[in-house]
Amino acid sequence: MRSKRYSESTINTCSEAFKSFLIFYREKPVTEIINEDVIIFNNDYTLKKKLSASFQNQTVNALKLFFMIVRGTKIEVNKIQRPKRAKLLPKVLSKEEIKLILDAHSNIKHKMMLSLIYSCGLRCGELLALQPIHFHSKRNIVVLKNAKGQKDRIVPLSFKILYMLREYYSLYKSKTYFFEGQVSVIHYDSLSLQQVLEQSLYKAQLTKPATLNWLRNNYAIH
């Protein structure tokens, strides 16, 4: 999977799903696994434990990949029941709530990270992977390298965000990553970033269980 340049999160997800399948059939050799075993696993493990539809799909995808590449055989996916993708409405925050969240922090780094996610619709990983060279202030854009699906994309920057970015850079003088952790060659931690948002919600006295992806969704909605 690394040779195919899958992201580490995808590798971990597939590995954990495949691990659950192997434990379920721990007394059966892998060479004897057939299509019906996958169906039984779905019914007797995934559904009985009331695991999510995404876990069910991840397991099927992991097995398909393993048997096709490692075993040189095929799992007939079209014979395995797949859950329908849930059509959920995006989580919405009002513009007033967004303003309260972004203004909650006096720390310019924290405010800058949350503001950039909202104003540019960035994923957490895209934000943390940013480097100073990715910003083109004369063109008012930021280039996201190797975004989801290993694709580059360009996102416009507002004048207000550009002003904030210049103010932030003049203070922090970022070198490797634009938002650095305690060590300059390592980017800011994703869990710490989620905690920054949680602190904003607490300070703003908002009870909604907002996530970083909510900010990204609201970029498109607003």
Task: Describe this entry's structure for a reader.
- With 222 residues, the protein is mainly alpha-helical.
- It contains nine helices and three strands; from the N terminus they run ααααααβββααα.
- The protein has helices at residues 8-24, 35-47, 53-69, 95-103, 108-120, 124-128, 159-172, 190-203, 212-221; strands spanning 135-136, 141-147, 151-156.
- Strands 1-2-3 form a three-stranded antiparallel sheet.
- Strand 1 (135-136) and strand 2 (141-147) form a beta hairpin.
- Helix 4 (95-103) packs across helix 8.
- The longest helix is centred in the N-terminal third of the chain and has 17 residues, at 8-24.
- The radius of gyration is 22 Å and the shape is elongated.
Q: What is the arithmetic mean of pLDDT? A: 85
> Structural class, please?
mainly alpha
Let me know the number of strands. Answer: 3
In helices, the fraction of residues equals: 40-55%
Shape: elongated
Strands side by side in the biggest sheet: 1-2-3
What value does the Rg take, in angstroms? Answer: 22 Å
Q: How is the biggest beta sheet arranged?
A: 3 strands, antiparallel
Which sequence of SSEs, written as H and E, runs from N to C? HHHHHHEEEHHH
Q: Poorly predicted ranges (pLDDT <50, ≥5 residues)?
A: none
Terminal Cα separation, in Å? 37 Å
Number of helices: 9
Strand content: 5-15%
Short description:
This protein has 222 residues and is mainly α. It has helices at 8-24, 35-47, 53-69, 95-103, 108-120, 124-128, 159-172, 190-203, 212-221; strands spanning 135-136, 141-147, 151-156. 50% of the residues lie in helices and 7% in strands.
